[in-house]
Amino acid sequence: MPLGPVTHASHAQYVGYYDGHKDWYFATDTSSKAQAKAMHINYSKALASVKGAPRQFFIEGKQAKGQISVFGSEPGEDDYNPLWEEIIVTWKAGATPVLLVKDDQIDSLAKAGKLTERDAHIVFNAPIIKVG
Fold first, then answer.
1. Nearest 5 degrees, angle CA 111-CA 76-CA 109?
2. Domain limits at 46?
């Protein structure tokens, strides 16, 4: 049963890596007021209480050419959830950035002391809409 008239709306699409391929996603809500304002999306205080969501990595500072965010899961995986814990990744001084395309790659490089991972304490509602 239809819920009402169907209309088409424009919504910004973003791209992130998961296990070496690109996935497309929408950003709809965030637990950060500043991020909501900057991205023109909804602020949701309640999202801040979500724990255990998969990670989405955002690389700050120096980075390899073509770097985009990296997902820790995707639709079809047991732990997929459209809510993400934002993790900020930065390369350590003296490290040569490489293109980051997998969460396991990021974790390995952090363990090897090449980069750091920092929990941004932001939960982001960003459903993946197309697996690449």
1. 10
2. 13-131
26: nearest Cα among 8, 35, 14, 38: 14
How far is Cα 110 from Cα 75, in angstroms, rounded to an integer? 26
Asked whether the whole model's pTM tops 0.85, one would answer yes
Q: What are the pLDDT digits (tens) for 8-39?
A: 666 789 999 999 999 999 999 999 999 999 99
Residue 17 near residue 100 (C-beta atoms within 8 A): yes
In a domain, 6, yes or no: no
In a domain, 66, yes or no: yes
The answer as to whether 19 is a domain residue is yes
d(CA 109, CA 2): 49
Counted domains in the chain: 1
Q: What is the pLDDT of residues 60-95, one digit of tens each?
A: 999 999 999 999 999 999 999 999 999 999 999 999
- Asked whether residue 87 is domain-assigned, the answer is yes
What is the rounded CA–CA span in Å between residue 77 and residue 115?
26
